[in-house]
Design brief:
single chain; transmembrane helix; 12 helices; globular; 75% helix; Transport permease protein; 0% strand; mainly alpha
Length: 271
């Protein structure tokens, strides 16, 4: 029986991940429609709520609604990335591409890691498009460059965690139709059950604890603070005053769970 040696060591693993991520990015160049899926909803929200109808929204404490909205719109890039990533993984599984990767002498973790890195690059491109549109409409950060960059760092970490949610969905769900339904539900549900679009004070009292502890609310709160945009918060709770702690704990837990389950599912499919 012939044994195929799997390259070992960090250098070999990095080379494999780069090659797999490059394949995914080349596919994006040939079919850039994924960027439409990532940017369409955030851009529509920005144009409709932040530009056309912004006079209809009042922020507690005052301030420009477009500047309040931009953190939520930026966060939606991460939520909108879940569906396209899940569909990409599902199509690779259904088309037999993952099976061909398994037959090659490459590390088992490289396939999913390469997928996540390539999709992160695509999501960052989508984020640049959305933020550029916001700048064109009049949004501006009002803090120093380090704080602005820190905000984008949190945002990229959030997007990467959402990509792993998409990878897990793609490994579990079988059809693009079911993935699209779940992805849309996550995008709409987590956006409206958070402070991404409106302040928690404008919502019924019984739902406010859910909104305040939603990690999406913590991300948008941190972004507004780091960018110097209106916060719209009216009450002091642990979640609103310690958004950094909530972000660190929830994103770390989410990444740990989704990556572990995704790799487990990948290994199980081999047997």
């Amino acid at each position: 029986m012939t044994t195929i040696a799997v390259p070992a060591g960090p250098a070999a693993a990095i080379t494999e991940i780069r090659a797999l991520a490059g394949r995914r990015l080349r596919h994006l160049q040939r079919a850039p429609g994924r960027l439409i899926g990532i940017t369409m909803n955030p851009l529509v929200m920005m144009l409709a709520m932040g530009y056309l109808f912004k006079q209809a929204f009042v922020i507690p404490g005052g301030g420009d609604y477009l500047e309040y909205l931009m953190a939520g719109v930026a966060m939606q890039v991460g939520l909108a990335s879940i569906g396209p990533t899940a569909i990409g993984v599902s199509m690779d599984l259904r088309g037999g591409l993952i099976d061909r990767f398994r037959s090659l002498p490459i590390g088992r973790g490289g396939v999913l890691l390469g997928h996540s890195i390539a999709d992160l690059a695509a999501s960052v491109i989508g984020l640049v498009i959305v933020m550029g549109a916001g700048l064109a409409l009049g949004w501006r950060p009002h803090t120093d460059a380090l704080s602005v960059l820190a905000g984008f760092g949190i945002l990229i970490a959030f997007i990467y965690a959402m990509l792993w949610v998409g990878i897990l969905l793609g490994m579990v769900l079988k059809t693009p139709e079911s993935i699209d339904a779940v992805g849309s539900l996550v995008l709409v549900g987590l956006s409206f059950l958070s402070t991404a679009l409106i302040s928690a004070s404008a919502m019924p009292a019984w739902i406010r604890p859910v909104v305040e502890w939603n990690p999406v609310s913590s991300v948008t709160t941190a972004l507004r603070e780091l960018w110097g945009n209106p916060g719209g918060t009216t009450g002091a709770t642990f979640a609103t005053e310690n958004s950094g702690v909530v972000i660190a704990v929830t994103l770390a837990a989410l990444l740990l769970v989704t990556t572990a389950l995704s790799f487990r599912r990948y290994r199980k499919a081999e047997n």
